[in-house]
Design goal:
By secondary structure, the chain is mainly beta. The chain has one domain: Sandwich (Jelly Rolls). The protein is built from 2 helices and 16 strands. The strands form 2 sheets. A 9-stranded antiparallel β-sheet has the order 1-2-5-14-7-8-9-10-16. Strands 3-4-15-6-11-12-13 form a 7-stranded antiparallel β-sheet. GO terms for molecular function: hydrolase activity, hydrolyzing O-glycosyl compounds; xyloglucan:xyloglucosyl transferase activity. It is an enzyme of class 2 (transferase). It is found in: Secreted, Cell wall; Secreted, Extracellular space, Apoplast.
Length: 286
């Protein structure tokens, strides 16, 4: 799935190099720039500025952050594609810039579905090209009816995925036990919408209905706090609440609730993946 997106990025790289990057100005998108496709700044129904990413038969669309970060908190509000979104994937992720086989990545992908069927939130992590750390979740709400806040927190000890400030997933830095963890290189934020009907909905059994196009997702209220080792931002100091965040009792309770009520796939628990040996060591360390 990550490789498919890499192929998409590569296929559009020539277009991106030829076309001038369109700077997105004005609140809340001063830190973002449109990359390709039918992406544009709009005013939503509440009067706020947002970026609309649209997918049709001819093109996908994307934007990215103007700056990279190494250890950061990224917040963004997203309103997903309504109706029959089967085959589409809306993404929000951070990724290093360099050779794909050695890349780091932390991603959230929203897998579309047929009308009336729920979205799947697909999360994953790559470190030096090692991925396959997928977990998937369902929501207790309809993510197409209104905006919801999605957060990636990446610090030296943890990666945390939050939805409306509720913890859905944590990945602990277990490098001392040989587990991969993105630690050494800065990453850039990307958001895209693209067609992935070869795998996205029910394993590719449900295809994109292009008669429903265009498919549009909306993004607003982007915020990025970067905390590199030499950053003096007060939000990055010990005790600030997120940069050195640990899982307190409240977060542990949230995680237990999500694992019980919302989790639909965990790579550590998939017997089909480990027929010839045990799961990765970090599965016993989480």
């Amino acid at each position: 799935m990550g490789q498919a997106r890499a192929q998409l990025l590569a296929s559009l790289a020539a277009i991106y190099l030829i076309l001038a990057i369109t700077p997105v100005t004005g609140n809340p998108t001063d830190d973002l720039e449109i990359m390709w496709g039918n992406a544009k700044v709009v005013t939503d129904s509440s009067g706020q500025q947002a970026i609309a990413l649209t997918l049709d038969r001819s093109t996908s669309s994307a934007f990215r952050s103007k700056k990279t970060c190494q250890f950061c908190r990224i917040d963004i509000e997203i309103k997903l594609v309504p109706g029959d979104s089967a085959g589409t994937v809306t993404t929000f992720y951070v990724i290093t810039e360099g050779a794909w086989q050695f890349h780091d990545e932390i991603d959230i992908e929203f897998l579309g579905n047929s009308t009336g069927q729920p979205y799947t939130m697909h999360t994953n992590m790559y470190a030096r090209g090692q991925g396959g750390r997928e977990k998937q979740y369902k929501f207790d709400f309809d993510p197409t009816q209104d905006y919801h806040k999605y957060t990636i927190i990446w610090n030296k000890d943890w990666i945390l995925f939050l939805v409306d400030d509720k913890l859905y997933r944590q990945i602990k830095n277990n490098q001392i036990y040989g587990a991969p963890y993105p630690y050494y290189y800065p990453m850039r934020v990307y958001a895209t919408i693209w067609n992935a009907d070869d795998w996205a909905t029910q394993g590719g059994r449900v295809k994109t209905d292009w008669s429903q196009a265009p498919f549009t997702a909306y993004f607003r209220n982007y915020r990025a706090i970067s905390c590199s080792p030499f950053n003096n931002n007060p939000l990055c100091l010990p005790g600030s609440g997120w940069f050195d965040q640990q899982l307190d009792a409240s977060r542990q309770q949230q995680l237990a609730q999500v694992n019980s009520n919302n989790e639909i796939y965990d790579y550590c628990k998939d017997p089909k993946r480990y027929k010839n040996g045990p799961p990765p060591r970090e599965c016993g360390l989480q």
